[in-house]
Design brief:
The complex is a heterodimer of chains A (263) and B (305).
Chain A (H helix, E strand, L loop, with lengths): L11 H5 L4 H14 L7 E5 L3 E4 L6 E9 L4 E7 L2 E12 L2 E14 L2 E5 L3 H4 L2 H6 L17 H17 L8 E2 L1 E3 L3 E8 L6 E11 L2 E14 L2 H11 L1 H25 L1
Parallel strand pairs in A: 2-12, 7-8
Antiparallel strand pairs in A: 1-3, 3-10, 4-7, 4-11, 5-6, 9-10, 11-12
Chain B lengths: L1 E4 L4 E4 H18 L4 H10 L4 H25 L5 H28 L2 H30 L22 E4 L4 E4 L1 H17 L4 H12 L6 H23 L5 H22 L4 H24 L6 E6 L2
Antiparallel strand pairs in B: 1-2, 3-4
The chains are: A alpha+beta (263), B mainly alpha (305).
Chain lengths: 263, 305
């Protein structure tokens, strides 16, 4: 009844000195192999570890399920790969709207999702929430360079708002549902414009306003099939891709001229 | 049925794309214009990022102009020498244009530039066509008006590097077509257009070429300029969506077939008036979008690393 426990898992001690991305994954993996015999306080897994973006892709949903050992609450965070983002603000110059101000954010989660079994402020302290980046307000969005704090606030709010509109950031905290005392599940929705890359799904067991156990699972969002081939090819061999695009169009044009010849 | 465009990274209904390609192909068939100037704004309207729209319509243009040039070539209406001279300027212009495009993209001003250029170009062109066709309508009722002199001598004929263009029956400075090619090349790179609508009037009124050889020759150099733009955009900005271009081409071929049949039933001056109205409508929509208060003054862009 504890599916998915063979994935990477992490103990509280590793979470304390957590780093991001693969580094953390690797550490968790090593620790898992080092101490396989101990009983798990928390196990969780996803119904699917790969979201395949195909030609007909219109979004996907993945169910995260698991069980906890003993009482407590569960919080779930899903983060897409960090990317650099430019936020621009338009203002009116000579009657037309022009991008006039710009702020660069070096590490913005390209996708973010958070869910909890109860409202976040009821189950974790503000410090814990900030440390584990629980909630959109704890994403630590800091621009490059120096700007007045009010201006930074406006740009951060705009960034979050735009991402929410694209359904890449949540409008509210999702619900982790308990089935009985120990089994839980939640659904993570990915829109059709979901960025590709390796995502980290972090599940936290919370007791007395603090995280006591956690587990991290990777989730890969990847283009597959012809689209992936086209995209990968365009990125790796841009010159050849361009040449083929031109040649294809020329052949298509030649074919198109054929019916006219008989006319 | 939605189709996921791998470079644009959006899902678009494939029938909307086919319809769009078809509609523009229809216009090509009816009016004999490339339609690139309509494809880019329409792609932007349906949610394709402007940068991808520009680069992909250049790709689509390669195919569209190849098929048209083959038709004109068969009728002997292509001045190859003139085409190659135009091309020298066109290639230089498109390199310069892609460089400007990349620079503006980094500064976050490319979308504004694309819209502004379209408003100015389409607005001017639409107004000129409108005036011309209204004037023609009026002149039809006043026969016996003196025709324009075939050949006028002005400062352009004093330029060096004179060359003979036999097919066009011209002896003019090669700098003129090179300069013209350059200007059109720049626009081609920034706007994803073939530039036929700038090139054709300039060839007739500025260079004094015979009208019959103008479309074929203009399209000949557009093939190479558009191919060059596609290559450069693919290489520097990675914004060419070949899937998008192909779907548009398929729609375009069907549309052009229907359009050319339909076009023969309408009078030339009526066609020009209709085209003028259409061009002005697109310009007005773009101009309106520039001046209306955006729903959110903030926008975001991922910096590709």
């Amino acid at each position: 009844m504890y599916p998915g426990s063979d994935r990477t898992s992490a103990r509280p001690s590793t979470l304390a000195d957590r780093t991001s991305g693969w580094h953390f994954q690797l550490m968790a993996l090593i620790l898992f192999w080092a101490a396989p015999a101990r009983a798990e306080a928390l196990v969780a897994d996803l119904t699917n570890h790969l979201i395949a973006i195909t030609t007909g892709f219109t979004g996907a949903s993945v169910v995260l399920f698991g069980a906890i050992d003993g009482p407590g609450d569960v919080a779930v965070v899903v983060r897409g790969p960090d990317r650099e983002m430019a936020v621009r603000r338009k203002s009116r110059i000579a009657g037309i709207w022009v991008n006039s101000q710009e702020m660069i954010f070096a590490n913005v989660a390209s996708f973010y999702f958070v869910a909890a079994s109860r409202p976040l402020e009821e189950i974790v302290s503000p410090a814990t929430a900030a440390f584990y980046r629980l909630g959109v307000t704890n994403l630590e969005l800091k621009p490059e360079g120096m700007s007045p704090p009010q201006v930074v606030d406006e740009f951060v709010t705009a960034l979050v708002r735009t991402q929410q509109r694209a359904r890449l950031f949540p409008n509210s905290v999702g619900k982790v549902n308990f089935i009985g005392e120990r089994l839980f599940r939640t659904t993570i929705e990915f829109p059709s414009n979901v960025p590709t890359g390796t995502y980290l799904v972090e599940v936290f067991l919370v007791r007395d306003k603090d995280v006591v156990s956690g587990q991290t699972t990777p989730l890969v969002v990847s283009k597959v099939g012809i689209d992936a081939d086209v995209f990968g090819f365009a990125a790796r061999q841009p010159a050849l891709y361009g040449a083929i695009a031109v040649l294809t169009a020329m052949v298509a044009g030649w074919l198109a001229s054929l019916p006219f010849r008989s006319a | 049925m939605d189709i996921y465009l791998p470079i644009a990274e959006v899902s678009v209904d494939v029938f909307v794309l086919l319809g769009l390609g078809g509609a523009v192909g229809f216009l090509t068939g009816v009016f004999g214009v490339g339609g690139g100037f309509l494809i880019t704004p329409l792609l932007i309207f349906i949610g394709v990022p402007p940068t991808v729209a520009v680069a992909s319509s250049a790709n689509q243009l390669v195919g569209a102009s190849v098929s048209s040039v083959l038709v004109h070539w068969r009728r002997g209406n292509v001045d190859f020498k003139m085409g190659y001279v135009l091309l020298v300027g066109g290639l230089a212009g498109s390199v310069f244009g892609v460089w400007i495009f990349t620079l503006l993209k980094r500064l976050g001003q490319i979308e504004l530039t694309i819209s502004l250029c379209y408003v100015v170009l389409l607005g001017t062109l639409g107004a000129l066509m409108m005036v011309e066709s209204v004037y023609t309508q009026l002149r039809l009722h006043r026969p016996g008006v003196r025709r324009r002199k075939l050949h006028q001598h002005n400062w352009m004929h004093g330029l060096p590097l004179k060359a003979r263009f036999r097919r066009s029956k011209l002896y003019i400075s090669a700098l003129l077509p090179i300069g013209l090619g350059f200007v059109v090349g720049v626009f081609s790179a920034i706007l994803g257009i073939g530039g036929g609508f700038i090139m054709v009037p300039a060839m007739i009124y500025m260079l004094g070429m015979p009208t019959a050889v103008v479309p074929g020759t203009s399209l000949l150099q557009i093939i190479f300029v558009a191919a060059n733009v596609t290559l450069l955009q693919a290489y520097t900005n990675r914004t060419v969506d070949a899937v998008l271009a192909l779907v548009l081409l398929v729609g375009g071929v069907i549309g052009a077939r229907i359009g050319s049949r339909f076009g023969t039933r309408l009078r030339g001056d009526q066609l020009r008036l209709l085209l003028a109205l259409l061009v002005l409508a697109v310009a007005a929509k773009l101009a309106f979008d520039l001046t209306v208060r955006p729903t959110d003054p903030y926008s975001i862009a991922w910096e590709k690393t």
